[in-house]
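Hi everyone,

Forwarding the result from last night's run.
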Amino acid sequence: MSEPRIIVALDYDSLPQALGLVDRIDPARCRLKVGKQLFTRSGPAAVTTLVERGFEVFLDLKFHDIPNTVANACRAATDLGVWMVNIHAQGGRRMMEAAREAVGDEGPRLIAVTVLTSLGTEDLVELGMVGSPGDVVLRLAAVAEAAGMDGVVCSPREIAELRRQRAAGFLLITPGIRPAAAGLGDQRRVMTPAEAVAAGSSFLVIGRPITAAPDPMAALAAIEGELE
């Protein structure tokens, strides 16, 4: 089986709730994302428990602070055995370089967040950022690659242009993925799984279409079918 592209977002209030879903899916078929909600309530045990069960974990805490603080946080994430960790590209080049040094070449994949998929042009204008979300994503991705990041988190709408501009091995992690029959939720810039992969996405972050399904493994298999 080829490397799984799907990362299931565990947006739960507690580890027991998350395990109710995790026990119903195959670690060979997907990775798992632990974000702020679950990590704040359950702490590092949420990560170590999932790793012990055979899952590769994307720790989605979006570190954004002074370089030394982010470096130490990334070092701590590495010690947890995560597969991937992310930081905010808007923290700047020095912060990203410090994180890269802390993680090293043998540590988890280090990904920079560009523009949250909930933000539109009017939101960026209010924050004083020039250009559309796509323009900002492209600028931040260029800095991230120069700072040694393995890839970026981006909206599916930016995938094709990023693929043209960045190195072939640069990873594109895309939330805002919705199967054709699913609703948009609070995401604005979305694509179906097949569209995102065709455009050049490396990994797809998918939450509610799988976690809220009556049969999560069947939902995961249906998305795999779309990709095939």
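The first strand starts at residue 6 and ends at 9.

Cheers,
N.
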